[in-house]
Amino acid sequence: PVNELEFDAGWIDHPMVQPDPMTNVMAAEMCEQFLGNANGYGGIAADIRRSLLEHPGWFPSIETMASELSIHPRTLRRRLEAEQVTYRDVIAELRMKLAVEYLRNTRMTNEEIAARLDYSDAANFRHAFSRWTGKSPSDFRVG
């Protein structure tokens, strides 16, 4: 299941209205960080990353992503190889960065973050997060 919100592109230039100005600043910074910077990835890896960010919670197979990008899966693999990265690397890096942002900037539970990042359950999310950072999500959130 995916939730989507469609609106006229003209609204993009309107300032965000939030009851809490800090929430507004945080949301704007998160958008700038994720959309304005490919974190070292260029080319096809950046295209994959943008596509994933445009569809929150969507982490498709490489075949599905290739179809989304209108190229053959083998071509996608070759282009990623030329950038010295794998599809799995791009997915893992994005999941990790999103998890860190959710833990730092939201009050989402581990279960909610796990669902948002397409993990089968919170235990799998906690295990992956600990592998990435050396800390549990709760320890990371505390500081």
TrEMBL record:
<dbReference type="GO" id="GO:0003700">
    <property type="term" value="F:DNA-binding transcription factor activity"/>
</dbReference>
<dbReference type="InterPro" id="IPR018060">
    <property type="entry name" value="HTH_AraC"/>
</dbReference>
<dbReference type="GO" id="GO:0005829">
    <property type="term" value="C:cytosol"/>
</dbReference>
<keyword id="KW-0805">Transcription regulation</keyword>
<protein>
    <submittedName>
        <fullName>Helix-turn-helix transcriptional regulator</fullName>
    </submittedName>
</protein>
<dbReference type="GO" id="GO:0000976">
    <property type="term" value="F:transcription cis-regulatory region binding"/>
</dbReference>
<dbReference type="InterPro" id="IPR009057">
    <property type="entry name" value="Homeodomain-like_sf"/>
</dbReference>
<keyword id="KW-0804">Transcription</keyword>
<keyword id="KW-0238">DNA-binding</keyword>
<dbReference type="Pfam" id="PF12833">
    <property type="entry name" value="HTH_18"/>
</dbReference>
<feature type="domain" description="HTH araC/xylS-type">
    <location>
        <begin position="42"/>
        <end position="143"/>
    </location>
</feature>
